[in-house]
Amino acid sequence: MSLKPSFSFQYDGKPVTVDTTQSTWQIDDALQVTLCATQYRDVNACEWRLVFENHSDHDSAILSDIWDCDILLPFPKNAPRPH
User: Fold this and answer.
1) Statement: residue 43 has pLDDT above 70
2) Which helix (H) or strand (E) holds 43?
3) What count of other Cβ atoms lies within 10 Å of the Cβ of residue 37?
4) pTM of this structure
5) 48-83: per-residue pLDDT in tens?
């Protein structure tokens, strides 16, 4: 398993796309996003969290629709669906 976190969010009403080969992104002068990730190779798993920070002296634009685990999971056709 290769570590490739998948997440998405909107900033000022616009979708943000980032290169997940990096761990920190400066979105504009007010918003910095940092990905903190750990891979557990012995159990073929990973965990991650996003840290949103404003290092400016003014308010950032609005963050919305934050999906910190934006993935699709395939289920067999007749499998019970999670709620």
Assistant:
1) yes
2) none
3) 14
4) 0.74
5) 889 999 999 999 999 999 988 877 777 788 877 766
The one-letter amino acid code at 31 reads L
Nearest to 65 by CA among 6, 16, 26: 16
**Where does residue 27 rank: exposed (0-12), middle (13-18), buried (19+ CB within 10 A)?**
middle
Rounded Cα–Cα distance for residues 49 and 36 (Å) = 5
Nearest CA to 68 out of 45, 44, 51 is that of 51
Q: Quick one: pLDDT at residue 4?
A: 66
| Contact indicator for 64, 10 with CB cutoff of 8 Å | yes
Cβ-proximal residues to 1 (8 Å cutoff; 6+ apart), any chain: 39, 41, 44, 45, 46
Q: Is the pLDDT of residue 25 over 70?
A: yes
Taking a C-beta distance cutoff of 8 angstroms, is the pair 51, 34 a contact?
A: yes
